[in-house]
Amino acid sequence: MTAVIAQAESSAMLLDVQAVAKMLGCSPRHVYRLSDAGRMPGPVKLGSLVRWSASAIREWIDAGCPSFRRKVTSNAE
Known about the structure:
The chain is built from four helices and three strands, in the order αβααββα. By secondary structure, the chain is an alpha+beta fold. A hairpin with a 2-residue loop joins β2 (44-46) and β3. The longest helix is centred in the first third of the chain and has 10 residues, at 2-11.
């Protein structure tokens, strides 16, 4: 029972930029650059706070850190 609760708590955990930077082995500024460029999962904004889902970051790392950029298709003729 406690393992289920611990798993639910860890999957719902939100990380600040310092924690994400530590996981990635980079600077906090680089985390913002990656996020702004669409190269990592987007943050959750809570008022003025910026946080990332711990489970989304772990899944992204496990998948080899693929880009999150969306391909833009133009309808220009």
